[in-house]
C-alpha cells in the first residue's frame, strides 16, 4: 500500500546533509537532527512526548506483515535504548477488509508481545518485552481511510498527551534507527517528517536501474510516501487528519501541511524498504510505479 512518488515542491528544511539514503540506512546516521533548531532531547514542547504510534494499514498481507512487525519491534527496542525519556510505543495494525490470514498472523504477533511483556514484569526472563500491538478492524479498502482509523485509535489512547504518529505499510520493513530518527527530529521542531523508500529484493536489475535513475535519495528530496511519514499529533489535528482516499492520501496531507506553513523535514537518512511487487494494494501506488517502470524499454 505504499503511496505514489509524485514530487512536491521542497518545503522548509531543517538542514542539508550529503549522505545518500543507502549509507544512512546502514549506519543509522541522523545528521539532520543535530542541525535542526533546538537540542535533540529537549528545549521544545515536543520534548515531553510520551506516546508514539506506528500506523500499519493491511489488506491481505499475511505473507509480508510478519517481517514488517519484526522490523518495527527492533526499531522500538532501539528507541528505548537510544533516547532520553523515550515515549511509549504502540503498533496499530489496521486490518482493512482482509480475507486471508492477516488477522491470524497479527494476532499471533500481538500475543507473543503480551506474553513477553508479562514475563518481563514478573521477572521470569531477562529478555525485554516489545511494543504492544493494537488491532483495529475496518472494511474500507482504502489506504487513506485505514490510516485515518488507525490514527483515531492512537489519539484516543493518547488522550490530550503530546504524541507522534508514524505511518508505514505492511509490505515494508524499517531500519533499526527509524523510530529513533523520527523522535529526534520531532524533538528538534519538525511537524512532519518525510523519509525515502527503496525497493526490496526481487526487482529485476533493469527495472531497479530505471528506478534509481528517477528517484532522488537526497535530503530535501521531492518524494512523499505513506510508508515513511511521521507527524506530530498537533499538526495532524490542525490538518484534519488523513484524507479517507483510496490513494494519494499522503500527497494530499503534505500539500495541506505546506499550505499551513508547517515545518517539514525531507530526509534521506530514514529509508525504508518496500516490497518490489508490481501488483500492489493501492491504485497508483508504489507497486504501480514499479510496474510502469517495468514496461519501459
**Major sheet: arrangement of strands:** 3-2-1-4-7-6-8-5
Please give the CATH class.
Alpha Beta
> If you consult CATH, what is the topology?
Spore Coat Polysaccharide Biosynthesis Protein SpsA, Chain A
What is the CATH superfamily? Spore Coat Polysaccharide Biosynthesis Protein SpsA, Chain A
Notes on the protein architecture:
The chain is an alpha/beta fold and 297 residues long. It has a single domain (21-294), classed as Spore Coat Polysaccharide Biosynthesis Protein SpsA, Chain A, CATH 3.90.550.10. The chain contains 10 helices and 8 strands. It has helices spanning 21-27, 31-35, 65-82, 102-122, 143-158, 178-187, 205-214, 233-239, 249-259, 286-294; strands at 51-58, 88-96, 132-138, 163-167, 172-173, 192-199, 229-232, 264-274. The chain has an 8-stranded mixed sheet, sandwiched between helices. Helix 3 (65-82) links the parallel strand 1 and strand 2 (88-96). Helix 3 (65-82) packs across helix 6 (178-187). Mean pLDDT is 83; it is low at 1-30 and 39-43.
Amino acid at each position: 500500500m505504499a503511496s505514489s512518488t509524485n514530487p512536491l515542491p521542497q518545503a522548509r528544511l531543517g538542514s542539508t546533509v550529503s549522505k545518500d539514503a543507502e549509507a544512512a540506512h546502514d549506519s543509522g546516521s541522523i545528521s539532520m537532527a543535530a542541525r535542526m533548531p533546538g537540542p535533540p532531547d529537549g528545549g521544545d514542547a515536543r520534548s515531553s512526548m510520551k506516546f508514539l504510534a506506528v500506523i500499519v494499514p493491511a489488506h491481505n498481507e499475511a505473507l509480508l506483515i510478519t517481517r514488517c512487525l519484526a522490523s518495527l519491534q527492533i526499531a522500538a527496542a532501539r528507541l528505548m535504548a537510544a533516547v532520553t525519556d523515550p515515549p511509549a510505543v504502540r503498533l496499530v495494525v489496521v486490518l482493512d477488509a482482509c480475507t486471508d490470514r492477516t488477522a491470524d498472523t497479527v494476532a499471533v504477533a500481538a500475543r507473543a508481545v503480551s506474553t513477553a511483556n508479562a514475563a518481563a514484569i514478573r521477572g521470569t526472563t531477562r529478555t525485554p518485552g516489545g511494543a504492544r500491538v493494537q488491532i483495529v478492524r475496518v472494511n474500507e479498502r482504502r489506504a487513506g481511510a485505514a490510516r485515518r482509523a488507525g490514527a483515531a485509535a492512537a489519539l484516543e489512547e493518547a488522550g490530550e498527551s503530546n504524541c507522534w504518529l508514524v505511518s508505514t505499510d505492511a509490505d515494508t520493513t524499517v531500519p533499526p534507527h527509524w523510530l529513533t530518527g523520527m523522535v529526534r527530529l520531532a524533538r528538534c521542531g519538525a511537524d512532519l517528517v518525510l523519509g525515502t523508500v527503496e525497493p526490496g529484493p526481487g526487482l529485476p536489475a533493469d527495472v531497479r536501474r530505471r528506478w534509481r535513475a528517477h528517484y532522488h535519495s537526497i535530503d530535501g528530496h521531492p518524494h512523499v510516501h505513506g510508508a515513511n511519514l511521521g507527524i506530530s499529533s498537533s499538526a495532524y489535528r490542525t490538518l484534519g487528519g488523513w484524507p479517507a482516499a483510496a490513494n494519494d492520501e499522503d500527497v494530499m496531507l503534505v500539500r495541506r501541511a505546506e499550505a499551513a506553513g508547517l515545518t517539514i523535514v525531507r530526509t534521506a537518512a530514514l529509508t525504508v524498504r518496500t516490497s518490489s511487487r508490481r501488483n500492489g494494494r493501492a491504485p497508483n501506488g508504489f507497486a504501480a510505479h514499479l510496474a510502469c517502470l517495468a514496461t519501459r524499454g
